[in-house]
């Protein structure tokens, strides 16, 4: 229960930080047919299909920037190749 609350607090702080930075969204009209598909970076694969996954990291209770003094779990979305499972990394 406490871990979920800490996770929500971390996410809320991240959202507030984004708003404080003045991030502005711009509506751009782009034809998808004009875009180049990303390929898997695994040289033997080359697939263009990816799935969403989550990398979960822990902020230690002992970390000096952790005000809760309890372990906090942070969720980071990633994309992995559907064929070989290699994580997509933008170059």
Number of helical regions: 1
Mean pLDDT: 85
Tally of separate domains: 1
Share of helix, binned: 10-25%
Our estimate of the beta-strand percent is 15-25%
Key traits:
alpha+beta; 91 residues; 22% strand; flat; two-stranded antiparallel sheet
What does this protein structure show overall?
This protein has one helix at residues 2-20; strands at 50-59, 72-81. Helices cover 21% and strands 22% of the residues. The protein has a two-stranded antiparallel ribbon with strand order 1-2. The mean pLDDT is 85. The protein has one domain (1-18, 37-91). With 91 residues, it is an alpha+beta fold.
Task: Compose a concise summary of this entry.
21% of the residues lie in helices and 22% in strands. The model has no long low-confidence stretch (mean pLDDT 85). It has 91 residues and is of the alpha+beta class.
Furnish the topology, listing elements before pairings.
Blueprint: H1 2-20, E1 50-59, E2 72-81
Antiparallel strand pairs: 1-2
